[in-house]
Amino acid sequence: MITKIKKRDGREVPFNIEKIANAIYKAAKAAGGKDYETSLALAEKVVDYIEKELNCKVPSVEEIQDIVEKVLIETGHARTAKAFILYRAERTRVREMNTRLMKIYEELTFKEAKDNDLKRENANINGDTAMGTMLKYGSEGAKQFNEMFVLKPEHSAAHREGDIHIHDMDFLTLTTTCCQIDIEQLFKNGFSTGHGFLREPNDIRSYSALACIAIQSNQNDQHGGQSIPNFDYGMAKGVAKTYAKLYKKNLAKALNLLTGLEDADALVTEISDKIKDEHGLIPSMSSLDQYKKHEAALLKNKFGDENIVKKAQDFAAKAALNETNKDTYQAMEAFVHNLNTMHSRAGAQIPFSSINYGTDTSPEGRMVIENVLLATEAGLGNGETPVFPIHIFRVKEGINFNPGDPNYDLFKLACRVSAKRLFPNFSFQDAPFNLKYYKPGHPETEIAYMGCRTRVIGNVHDPSREIIFGRGNLSFTSINLPRIALRSNKNIDFFFEELDKKIDLVINQMLERYEIQARKKVKNFPFLMGQGIWIDSDKLGWDDEIREVLKHGTLSMGFIGLAECLKALTGKHHGESEASQNLGLEIIGHMRKRMDDASQKYKMNFTLLATPAEGIAGRFVKMDRQIYGCIEGITDREYYTNSFHIPVYYKISAFDKIRLEAPYHELTNAGHITYVELDGDPTQNLDAFEKIVRAMKNANIGYGSINHPVDRDPVCGFTGIIGDTCPNCGREEGNIPFERIRRITGYLVGTLERFNDAKKAEVRDRVKHSVTF
């Protein structure tokens, strides 16, 4: 006869059959039952089973619950059994909430970042600082709250068990991911950050400062990257205003010196206003010749001497050009410096910023492009490589790709700077899946990439608004492809059946998350929505829901480990076998079709993302190794391969890697990137560097980048490739370590200590197997 039971903490307490009956009754009620007597009878069967099977042993709570499940199923009460299992799982989750989180907080509090993966999960955050640790407190607490109380149990279980990964789950109930900020529209008539109004900027330095403020302010409303997709076009307005101001100042100065006219400033202003009123012209680099004709006629009436007028105008034009160029460089220098020093999110993190440029062929736009590249090439105060913003140079035939194109010199400069500083990356406007949106003269249709790879352009919700401005990603969730492949045991049909189940789950989960986001109001996003950054948000009131305008954004499904998935299914990854490549394209093509089908069904933008692995490449493989063991080529490393990439450890030529990865870019319409790894110093062979960029363009890559070591000796300032000894001053590393910039999932990071273990392992494999330059 049972007299005692063992609690989870080891204590033995008196046995009470009514507690079993009550638990069964609650489960039965959840399944529609109402008979307590049946519940009591089932409890008695549980007692009989315990006495028979446990042979007088004191049963534990878990053992009793296991037997309750067994009795319910064997006696035909399947629905009650299911409700009991769910109730039991829910109680377990509630108990764990109070233990797991506290252990995490303990480690965050008392361990340094070098000994704690959580503190190194995001290499953009210094987890050893007060604000960095506080940010992790909030993040980890929010993740567990959302997992236990907000997500549906099936979504929570799939994430917790490693079938899927819900990205940025700490922000699940709070905000969206990223946005493409139209700075021309934002700067027009000025804007507010919530603590005062900033008027429309009137020179390039103000444009630069306000661009930084816009990025920082929007970062506080979203958890992901902030992109300026029209950096050259937007900043060109500031250059034009600066030039006009300096031209008039220098013209007045010249007239004063040549004629002795004391009120030359007033005369120049009067003439300028007259030309603007009558002809709609200002003294800009783009329209200077036409402006000068009208100006010369008016000045001739005043002075009568054409030579004086010409000398004054020539002096003004030359001086204004030189001074504007100098001001533009200083503005771009300040822009780069600010984005590497200013902070958001309680001071713990610099904004995830990116800028797109390269196609503005106006003199003002060209000046912006040239100077932002030169400022990046020069580096920060002591010559350090800037980690932000991510630069994306748009490549377009007829604009900058070939000799004779108006911006070809800037493309060459972009290659030179990237060879030294890792940025810019290159986006290819002529790739068919990008070109189909392109409309000459409409920058809003030029493809931009955000952060490390995100892309937003197609618009099922409103096909007339297939533009980049004011749009971004709402959320994304990634599928663990190797897990499904391992579970399938080389059965391809079963693999696709299981994949479809996971896709259904992800679609449902993203719709659930959208519902949470959609109930938010403009006032919850004072900058993003309140200042009209997000498309159509300017039409909403402060207390209006943002449901409809969010539909312009994307819901993205991602994936990790196609290479390991193929290895599990066929024995070879897509770099080793043409058959595996074909299967890989079939798998990713199937996922894209499912997203397209969901887009049509819900009239929302479901898209497929080549996931940046971040921390999940290590998380997934660690969990799968526990289940399936260490399998060569699949679970035997510390990470799964990012998205569709050829494994970094596999030796392959740069051009073969580009050729094999290119077809996946068209399928992954939410974003993608192809990297090529070089082990030499590309600044010593710029022609070869450019050849790789051209190969990417010709293969119809959408977005590409070239990785190479960027090391710096902080003592002598040398930047290049450094082994154990600085080639410039001969210093060995010693107590003052060399700075080693590396790219991880699209972002640059300056020390391996800030990486988690999986990222460290990936970097080492990349370096070992990079292409000899």
Main beta sheet, described? 7 strands, mixed
- State the strand order across the main sheet: 4-7-8-9-10-15-14
Low-confidence stretches: none
Q: How many DSSP E strands? A: 19
Name the average pLDDT. Answer: 92
Structural shape: elongated
Distance between the termini: 79 Å
Helical region count? 24
Helicity, as a percent range: 40-55%
Class by SSE composition: alpha/beta
| Rounded radius of gyration (Å) | 31 Å
What fraction of the residues are assigned to beta strands by DSSP? 5-15%
Write structural notes for this entry:
The protein contains 24 helices and 19 strands. It has 773 residues and is of the alpha/beta class. The strands form five sheets. The chain has a seven-stranded mixed β-sheet. The longest helix has 34 residues, at 306-339. The radius of gyration is 31 Å and the shape is elongated. The relative contact order is 0.08. The mean pLDDT is 92.
What tags apply to this protein structure?
single chain, 773 residues, alpha/beta, seven-stranded mixed β-sheet, 50% helix, elongated
Topology:
Elements: E1 4-6, E2 12-14, H1 17-30, H2 36-54, H3 61-74, H4 78-110, H5 130-150, H6 153-161, E3 164-166, E4 179-180, H7 183-187, E5 191-192, E6 197-198, H8 204-219, E7 226-228, H9 231-259, H10 264-279, H11 288-303, H12 306-339, E8 353-357, H13 363-378, E9 390-395, H14 408-421, E10 425-428, H15 432-435, E11 473-480, H16 481-488, H17 492-518, H18 547-550, E12 554-560, H19 562-570, H20 578-602, E13 605-609, H21 616-628, H22 654-667, E14 674-677, H23 686-698, E15 703-707, E16 710-712, E17 719-720, E18 739-744, E19 747-749, H24 757-768
Parallel strand pairs: 4-7, 7-8, 8-9, 9-10, 11-12, 12-13, 14-15
Antiparallel strand pairs: 1-2, 3-11, 5-6, 10-15, 16-17, 16-18, 18-19
Helix pairs in contact: 1-2, 1-4, 2-3, 3-4, 4-5, 8-9, 8-12, 9-10, 9-12, 9-13, 11-12, 12-13, 13-14, 14-23, 16-17, 16-19, 17-20, 19-20, 20-22
